[in-house]
Design brief:
There is one protein chain. By secondary structure, the chain is α/β, with parallel strands linked by helices. Helix content is 41%, strand content 18%. It contains 13 helices and 7 strands. The protein has a 7-stranded mixed β-sheet with strand order 3-2-1-4-5-7-6, sandwiched between helices. The longest helix has 16 residues.
């Protein structure tokens, strides 16, 4: 995983920026205090770590990718950035008041061990806020129409809500809430389904490079074929029917909020 994100991290900051709405949602669910110390696990280049720091909250950023953390360090040298994983943070017991994990749990190698570790470093009554997507949600992305193998491979690495729930509860944490998120046209963080309403985004190579599904899972030939089909459907106005055929009420992504009681 670190090698994958070392490669992605080279130009990651061009397209992956903290989205203001998603930042506010993280704050809403985490409900941090200015006196607390919080963890951004799988922080990448620290976009959300820094966005939350700028709102007055103290965060440690941990990631397995040296390349990502170097970018984070360049953006904010006053923050604490360290190499680590969800399974092995290197933090003391009961040292963290809360944790966020944005679009990262599908890269964790062992969910049970990860949540046990996060529960270990979390203080009593501390919260974990996870932002992720589930396989059933991803099957509702219209991207499946153009990049079926890429989406199939992406879905395979994504743990289901049931699997995540089991890992959370077995670690002694309790899920207190879940909330769906639907991609908005003004989304600033250009992750996988960023082009839900703006298909043209996927023609930008820098956008694709910042998305692990395109940069690490996709086959070049499928991407080229899919982009050609997408361009044709846009040119002939057929894209609207394709997008409409994938409309659903499942949400595009999901917040999972857990607490250490």
């Amino acid at each position: 995983m670190s090698a994958k994100y070392n490669k992605i991290g080279i130009n990651y900051n061009q397209t992956r920026k903290a989205d203001p709405f998603l930042t506010d949602q993280l704050l809403k669910h985490l409900n941090p205090t200015k006196e607390g110390l919080y963890l951004d696990i799988g922080c990448g280049t620290g976009n959300y770590t820094i966005a939350l720091h700028e709102k007055g909250f103290q965060f440690i950023g941990i990631d397995p990718s040296i390349e990502m953390l170097q970018k984070a360090q360049l953006k904010n040298q006053n923050k604490k950035w360290q190499i680590g994983t969800a399974e092995k943070t290197g933090l003391p017991k009961n040292s963290i008041d809360g944790t966020i994990a944005t679009l990262t749990i599908h890269h964790w190698t062992n969910l049970d061990r990860a949540f046990s570790e996060l529960g270990y470093v979390l203080k009593i009554n501390g919260k974990i806020v996870i932002f992720t997507s589930t396989p059933i949600q991803m099957k509702g992305y219209w991207l499946n129409h153009y990049f079926p193998k890429m989406l199939e491979d992406s879905i395979l690495q994504m743990p289901s809500l049931e699997v995540v729930e089991k890992a959370i509860t077995s670690s002694g944490l309790n899920i207190t809430a879940t909330e769906i998120y639907n991609v908005q046209p003004d989304l600033k963080d250009q992750f996988l389904y960023c082009g839900k309403h703006n298909p043209e985004l996927y023609f930008d190579e820098s956008v694709r490079h910042g998305i692990s599904s395109f940069s690490s899972l996709a086959h070049k030939e499928e991407v080229e074929r899919g982009l050609a089909r997408l361009q044709s459907d846009i040119d002939y106005g057929e894209i609207h029917a394709i997008i409409k055929s994938y409309e659903n009420d499942l949400g595009d992504y999901l917040y999972i909020i857990a607490e250490h009681n």
